[in-house]
Amino acid sequence: MATDFHIFFPTLVWTCKGDFDNDALLKECYEHKNNTSSSQYSNKGGYQGQGFQSKMFVEFVHNNIPKSRVHNGNFQRLEIHSWVNINGKGSWNASHSHFIHSKPILFSGVYYVKVPQNSGEIGFHDPRGMMACRTLDEEYLNGTPAPVQFVMPSVGDCYYFPSWLEHEVRENKSEEERVSIAFNVCVQL
Questions:
Q1: pLDDT in tens, 164-176
Q2: Cα distance between residue 104 and residue 45, in whole Å
Q3: Closest Cα to residue 153, out of 93, 184, 185, 110?
Q4: pLDDT tens digits, one per residue of 10-49
Q5: Burial of 29 (0-12, 13-18, 19+ CB in 10 A)
Q6: pTM metric for this prediction
Q7: CATH numbers and ranges of domains, the chain
Q8: Residue 185 half-sphere exposure, CB side, CA atoms within 13 Å?
Q9: Cα–chain-centroid distance for residue 79?
């Protein structure tokens, strides 16, 4: 008799590709930096400017929200709160989540505007924690799994993920700046 298995509690991360003028968006990011002070929540050594507003970016995020099998996508209210991260050489983003109790966040995400080679991968932490990753069954079935899955983004990549999912971005080892826009999609169903 063969042994079967089920996959319970997966954590989904959705990805899509930007389809607009990325050079114009990059220009908007640098204009934002010139007009907005840095808040430094998770950014270490770089710039993190809250309150980024870009019509083309907001439309892109809104039009690419992952689709539901049970909800029709008509929200009473939908707001996209975004901020710019500009990380020069040696800068990085510490492990953090976007989960907050005061706002109804449907998804969080990040869009990559400029990604030089060796400018740092984004890493998503296993939400089950270190205990699950170090158990004998995980080692037996999967080898020694990493508690963080790193992905090297490309220009135009956009990742949507649950707001509670911890993530980080490795150090930029490039001589050029890495530019990304992080966001939260806040809704009332």
A1: 999 999 999 999 9
A2: 30
A3: 110
A4: 889 999 999 889 999 999 999 999 999 999 789 999 999 9
A5: buried
A6: 0.90
A7: 14-188 (2.60.120.620)
A8: 23
A9: 17
Residue 168 β-bridge partners: 123
> With helix as H, strand as E and coil as C, how does the chain read?
CCCCCCCCCCCCCEEEECCCCHHHHHHHHHHHHHHCCCCCCCEECCEEEEEECCHHHHHHHHHCCCCCCCCCCCCCEEEEEEEEEEECCCCEEEEECCCCCCCCEEEEEEEEEECCCCCCCEEEECCCCHHHHCCHHHHHHHCCCCCEEEECCCCCEEEEECCCCCEEECCCCCCCCEEEEEEEEEEEC
Q: Which residues partner with 178 through β-bridges? A: 87
Q: For residue 157, list its beta bridge partners.
A: 17
Length of the chain: 189
Name the residue type at position 30: Y
> 154 pLDDT band (50/70/90 cuts)?
very high
**Tokens 């509670």 belong to residue:** 164
